[in-house]
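Please predict the structure of the following assembly.
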Amino acid sequence: DAKTTQPNSMESNEEEPVHLPCNHSTISGTDYIHWYRQLPSQGPEYVIHGLTSNVNNRMASLAIAEDRKSSTLILHRATLRDAAVYYCILREGGSSNTGKLIFGQGTTLQVKP
Amino acid sequence: DTEVTQTPKHLVMGMTNKKSLKCEQHMGHRAMYWYKQKAKKPPELMFVYSYEKLSINESVPSRFSPECPNSSLLNLHLHALQPEDSALYLCASSPFAVSTNEKLFFGSGTQLSVL
């Protein structure tokens, strides 16, 4: 299973942008990059995913490096409700396409008022 | 309806008990998943069902027995568990299992304590 590396924790101030980094140097050409977040006492929640191009949705933006060995999740204006554990995940494609979603260690984001 | 519903929310059981966890979704999804999450750790994949057939078993001990009676329902039968099996058990669903380009919908989980 392809691996991801994230910082254990990050802090942000409310209403400021947050950039959450993720390294995935062993990514293969068909692996999609997924981001999920888990708020306290809840199950994980989908945030965004992409393959090669940068992606935007109502929750966040995903910036993918040209060599695809790293990516950054961008929350444009952090709110207190964004305090959660953010997981960067590679979902395997190609000949080993198993549909598995394997979570890494995640980054705990604290948002300060 | 975009919810995955898990029952019960909390469960306490002894090591000799038999219990079942239930998961339900009405989104027409054909893939369903069981994950186990210990405190302050990421979720770990246990089982994947695709079109009501078990497609992935991540070498889970036989004291955990999954069942998918129909496309909307997923059960996890528990028997002779150990205290170290205490964890949050999460259910998820997605339209299809073998696809890298779709999202999973997770339930809120069942918090299991084994005494």
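Chain B has no helices and eleven strands. Chain B touches chain A through 27 residues (CB under 8 Å).
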